[in-house]
Amino acid sequence: MGYSGKYGSPQSPGQIRNDDADFRLDAELGKCAAELLGTNRRLVEIHKRNKALLDSIPDIAWFKDVESRYIAVNRPFALACGKNPDDLVGKTDFDLWPKDLAERYRADDRQVMRSGRMTRLEEPLLDSRGRSFWLETIKVPIRDDSGRIVGTVGIARDFSERRRIEAELRRSHDELELRVVERTLELTEANLSLREIESKLRMGLRREMALRRMNEGILAGANYRDVLEIACDAIVETGYRMCWVGLAQDDFTIRPVASRGFDDGYLDTIADRWDVTPEGRSPSGISILTGKPYISRCIYEDSNFTPCSEEAHRRGYRSSATFPLRSGGNGSIGVLHVYCEREECFGPEEIRDLEIFAQQCALALLNAKRLEELRDAHRRLSTCLKEHSRTDAMDDGETDAGNRGGT
After folding, report:
1. Hey, CA dihedral for 13, 19, 25, 31, is it positive or negative?
2. Backbone dihedral region of 90: left (phi > 0), alpha (psi from -120 to 50 degrees) or beta?
3. Quick check: helix, strand or coil at residue 141?
């Protein structure tokens, strides 16, 4: 029999058992509270790690659950919404975007979860300041340890500028086709011989076919060198002596990456640059720095061709045209050079046609860069998903171990 109270009054056996049970219950509750506190701290750490991984991605990125509620977003996403990243957790697309866009995003999410495969999409975006963009988006389903799909993860990049360039190229193609027709009529009206008409028509159609092949290669993500070789082939086939494409390097040199025609080692003799050194006063450097074509009517008398004028003249180059490969608002990324065996070559129509080839070459290079950036973003995203799965598995293991210890 036990004792309790101020004077040690005796306790019954039932009271002792109740006190022992209360003591054990308090101990168990304390242990459970400690475990919950530890689990909560680990979840906070997991959230911090996932957020840090998302914020390391320069593009718009997010996690969603199966109900398309946002679990986490990075700063570029929040900036597009005009919100704080933490304020977006638990929100849906209908809370953030216009109804038509929200319905489109939700439909894309359902398709990704239904197929269980990574999907690449082109989606419009209207940001918090009312600006419209086009996003190239990659969405991937998230799976738990059992393989069940529990949500989606996405990354998106603005490619509005590329769409604008493609639209301009389509307009340029239409203009080129119209000029081919107009030239045919002009030649007919001038009563030129049928052979001359056919020759000019073949040249125009050959240019048009080459431009179409380049455009198809660009849209299909072909190797940029193959696309540039198509351009060089077509230009030389229309009667020019030689053609080459060079890329502006970070050390201000210009590296040839594609060429066609009679070269005979000429490219090995040039050392063009695109800075303020004397070598930067070459047609290549001038064209890159100014963003404008440089036409040399007579290479031998052009001081900007020194010291290469002798080498050019020896190979039959009498005039040349140099065109910058423009990259939108970021200046020029290279040059297209065309050489003719006649002086005073390159009339206004020829220059317009060659500028279209230069635009296509620039787009091929920009598209190659965009694809490499997308591959890098996908690698980052894969790393993020692996880290997310690994930390979840670790926490599940720790929770299981805690539960076994409690029993």
Report:
1. negative
2. left
3. strand
Taking only the tens place, the pLDDT of each residue in 157-172 is 888 777 788 778 888 8
**CA angle 76-79-84, nearest 5°?**
105
Average pLDDT of the chain is 79
Residues 6+ apart with CB under 8 A from 163: 134
Pairwise CA distance, residues 21 & 279, whole Å: 92
Q: How high is the pLDDT of residue 50?
A: 64
Q: What pTM value is reported for the model? A: 0.51
Torsion of CA 167, 172, 173, 178, to 10 degrees: 130
CA atoms of 359 and 72, how far apart (whole Å): 40
How far apart CA 160 and CA 66 sit, in angstroms, is: 29
Q: What are phi and psi of 203, to 5 degrees?
A: -65, -45
Sequence length of the chain is: 407
Half-sphere exposure of 191 (CA within 13 A, CB side): 0
The Cα–Cα gap between 349 and 57 comes to: 46
Which of 13-17, 175-179, 392-396 ranks highest by mean pLDDT? 175-179
DSSP assignment of 80-108 equals HHTS-GGGGTT--HHHHS-HHHHHHHHHH
